[in-house]
Amino acid sequence: MELPPGHYLATRAAALAAACLCYRRGSPGRGLALRAVRRASRQDINGVGQKYHLELVLEDVLDKDSTVNCTAEVLYHLGNNIPPDVQFTIEGELKNAEEADNIFYNRIKSLEKELVAENIPDSHGNVSPEMEPVHLLAWVASGYVIWQNSTENTKFQLAQIKRVKQVKRSDEYLEFDYTILLHEMVSQEIIPWQMTVLWHPRHSVQVTQGSRQPKHASE
């Protein structure tokens, strides 16, 4: 069944696909966001769930002129306790983030004390240049939380980093403990979430643990 590209079901599935893709392909030097839905259709698979076929345009969070086209399939299983299956194919090349990633990695590695920061972006929506990679890393990692917790009736987006604290490690990885606020756009709920994030320039971002936090954690 064809859906209009702006249909609420199409945009929810597209937002989920973009979040999952960003988690798989993003880094502190490259975040991806949904720019537009070009085509969408929905297929009811008997006894399995709803499958969405999507054609999307994604943009680089830092460079809105840098876009890629992408096709994706999102399968929401019957019974909401299984994360959706997301498959995607990117057409063309993503912007190379190697230099930006290495600069950030070396800067954090050279700090004398572990990094700690709060409220990114600030109340005016601003992110300082030195915090941009920390923010992008949370944007990428939140893609995992969104993917694992989405249903056909949700649409999540990272609203803010409440707090981030670097965790000391003896190996080459960087580890950060984030408390983030997720905006669930259908219910308009703001949900605090804790996530532990591992990263190294030669490996993709990993969320090693995450859990929903009580409401008062957002205050």
Structure description:
This protein is globular. A hairpin with a 4-residue loop joins strand 8 (174-184) and strand 9 (189-200). It starts with a strand and ends in a 7-residue tail after the last strand. It has helices at 8-25, 98-109, 132-149; strands at residues 2-3, 32-45, 49-60, 67-77, 85-91, 116-120, 156-167, 174-184, 189-200, 203-212. The protein has two domains: 2-91, Nuclear Transport Factor 2, Chain: A (Roll), CATH 3.10.450.10; 98-218, Nuclear Transport Factor 2, Chain: A, CATH 3.10.450. It is α+β, with helices and mostly antiparallel strands and 219 residues long. It contains three helices and ten strands. The strands form two sheets. It has a five-stranded antiparallel beta sheet. The chain has a five-stranded antiparallel beta sheet with strand order 6-7-8-9-10.
Task: Please name the defining characteristics of this protein.
alpha+beta, 5-stranded antiparallel sheet, 3 helices, Nuclear Transport Factor 2, Chain: A, 219 residues
Helical fraction equals: 10-25%
Summing up helix and strand content along with how strands pair, one would put the structural category as alpha+beta
Question: What's the total helix number?
Answer: 3
CATH architecture of the largest domain: Roll
What can be said about the biggest beta sheet? 5 strands, antiparallel
Beta-strand percent range: 35-45%
From the alpha-carbon coordinates, what is the Rg to the nearest angstrom? 17 Å
Order of helices and strands: EHEEEEHEHEEEE
Strand order, main sheet: write it out.
Answer: 1-2-3-4-5
Instruction: Give the C-level CATH assignment of the largest domain.
Output: Alpha Beta
Per CATH, what is the topology of the largest domain? Nuclear Transport Factor 2, Chain: A
Per DSSP E runs of 2 or more residues, the count of β-strands stands at 10
**Outline type:** globular
State the end-to-end distance: 43 Å
Low-confidence stretches: none
Overall mean confidence score, pLDDT: 95
Task: Indicate how many domains the architecture comprises.
Answer: 2
Main location: cytoplasm
Subcellular location: Cytoplasm
Keywords: Acetylation, Cytoplasm, Heparin-binding, Inflammatory response, Protease inhibitor, Repeat
Domain Cystatin LXN-type: 1-99, 116-219
